Amino acid sequence: MRRIPFILTGAGLLLAVLAVQGHDTAPKKKETTTTLMKKKLTQSQKVLEGIAVQDFDLIARHARELLFISKQAEFKQVLKTPLYEVYSTMFRSNAEDLIKNARKKNVDAAALAYVEMTLTCVKCHKHVREKRQARAAAFSNPSASAAGSPRAGR
Ligand code: HEC
Questions:
Q1: What are the tens digits of pLDDT across the range 84-107?
Q2: Beta-carbon contacts of residue 133 (< 8 Å; ≥ 6 apart)
Q3: 128: Cβ below 6 Å to ligand 1?
C-alpha cells in the first residue's frame, strides 16, 4: 500500500507535464480535437481524485467518460498512422481496465491502470509530435538527405 501515494504523485506530475506540453506543441488544430483533449485532461484528473480518495463510483464514471471521448470520430482521425491506432486502442483498453477495477473495488489495480493510461497519453503525444516535426523538416529542407551523401561538395 505504501507504493500507491508514490505512484499517484508520479501520475499527477505526468498529467501536469502533459497539460503544459499540449499547449506549445499543438499550434493549429481543429477546435473539436482541442475540446476533446481538454475534456480528457479534466476527466483524467477526476479519475485521479477518485483513486486518491478511494471513491470507486467517481473512478468508474469518469473512466467511462474517457472511453466515450476516445471513441468519438474527431479524436480517432487526427493522425492516420498504424502507431496512432495502437495508442488509441491501448488508451481504450486502459480506460476499460479502470472501469473493471473500480467495479472490483481494487484501488491498487485501478492506480496501476491509471498510470498505464497516463503513459499512453505521453506516448501518443510523443508520436504525434515526432510525425509533425518530421513533416515540417521535410517541407522546410527537402535536400537535407543529400547533404550526408559521400559525393556532397565534390
Ligand atoms: C491516441 C492518441 C492520444 C492519446 C492516447 C491522448 N492524446 Fe491528447 N492529444 C492527441 C493529439 C493528436 C493532440 C493534438 C491535437 C491537435 O493538435 O490536433 C492532443 C492534445 C492534447 C492536449 C492539448 C489540447 C490543447 O489544449 O491544445 C491535451 C491537454 C491532451 N492532449 C490531453 C491528453 C490526456 C490527459 C490524455 C490521456 C488521459 C491524452 N491526451 C491522450 C492525441 C492523444
A1: 999 999 999 999 999 999 999 999
A2: none
A3: yes
